[in-house]
Request: fold
Amino acid sequence: MATRKTRRARRRAASCALLLAALLAPLGTRAQEPPPDRVSLSADELLALANRAAQSGDAAAAESLYRALFADPSRDVRAEARFRLALQFARAERYPAAALLLREILDEQPGAQRVRLEYARVLDLMGDEAGARKALREVQAGDLPPEVVRMVDRYSAALRARKPFGGSLEVALAPDSNVNRATRADVLGTVLGDLTLDEAARARSGIGLAARGQVYARHSLGAHTSILGRASASATLYAKGAFNEVIAGLAAGPEFALGRDRLNLELGGDIHWFGGEAYARTGTLSASYLHALDRRSQLRATLAAGVIDNRLNAGQDGHTLSASLQYERALSVASGGGASLNLQRDDLAAPFYSSFGGQVTVFGYRDFGPTTVVASATHGRLWFDERLPVFLSRRSDSSLQASLSAQMRTFKVAGFAPFVKVELQRNRSTITLHRFNRIRAEIGLVRAY
Reply:
C-alpha cells in the first residue's frame, strides 16, 4: 500500500506533468476540456517528460519531475532519477548538491560503477582531490571491463583539483573523561620525596565543543603546477576556559602533477593556545609525495622540519624533524584500509625536554548502506634524552589508542550528516605524572558526501 508520502509525490508528479504538457502544447491549439483531477503516468513517462524539460532548458520543471520519482518503489527508478538530476546539478556547477545525490545512489547500490565515476569527477571539481582518488580506487576494486579500466586509468592520471577556493567544517559535542590528560594518582615520587598532588593537577572530566575547519585558495601556474594557500583552525572549548585548546595555522606552497603522482611543498606556521594563553609558535617547511602503487593502492611520504618557540618555557625552544609513510588500499567498492608509520625528533634547548618518538597506526572503513564505519588503532613510544632533575628516572612512555566512528547519512541537515566517534587512550610512563587513561567521544555534524 502506498504511503502518504508516496501519494503526495505522485500527485505532485502528475501536476508537474500536466503543467509541462500545457507548456509544450503547440500554439493555436483549440481549447480542450478541463483535464481530469488525476492522471496515471508510468515512471518511464515521467523520466521522459523530465528529460524533455531538461533539454528545453526548464531546469526547475525537470528537477520537480525527477524529485517526484525519488519516492518510487523501484530502486532502479529512484537511482536513475537521482543520477540524471545529479548530472543536471553538475552542469549548473551545483557540485555539493550533485555529490549528495550521487552518494545517496551509492548508499543503495554500492556496485553502481558509472555513478562512482561521476562521484569522483564531481569531488575533483569541488577541489576534493583526496576524496576523488579514494572513489577511483574503489571503482577499480570492483569488476570492470578492460575498456573501462583504460578510461579510469586515463582519468586517474589527469586527476587534479581545479576549484580555485573552498573549505570544510566539522563541529561536535565532545565529552571527555580526562580533558587535561593527567594522572589520577594522589602522590608523585621525586628526588625530594613523595609529593601530594592537589585536585587541579589530577585528571578532570568535562564536556566541550570541538570544531575543525579549513579554507583554501588555489592559483594555477600551468597545466601541471599550481600554488595552494590554506588557513586551518581547530578548537576544543569548555565552560571553564582553563583547559580550552585552540590551534590556528597558515601555509602555502606549490603543487606539482607528475603523471599519476603528486608533489607538494609547503611553508607554514601555527600558534597554539591553551587556557586562553598563547604558549607555542611553530614554523614548518614540509614536502609530501603521493605515489600510486597500482590501481587500488597509494603511498604517501612526508618530511617536515620546524622551529619551535615556546612562550612559557625557554627550555622547550628548539627544532623538530618528522617523517611519515602512509599506505592506503581499496579492498572493495565499499571498504578499504591502510597503515602508517610516523617518526619525530624534538631537539630542544634543554636535553631533558628533547625526545624521539614513533607511532604505528592501522585503520579501515566499511560502508553499510548509508552508514560508514571507520576503525583505527595506534601504538606509540616516546623516549626522552635525559632525566628531568626533579624526577627519579628518565621519562619513557608507551601509549595505546583506539577509535571507532560512524557517519549516518540517513539523517541529513543542509548537506551535513551526524557522526559519532568514541576514542580510548592509555598512556604508561616511567613518570607517574604522565600515566593516564582517557575516554573521549564526539557527537556532531560532518558533510554528508
Observations:
- The chain has a mean pLDDT of 87.
- The chain has two domains: 4-23+39-158, 169-221+231-447.
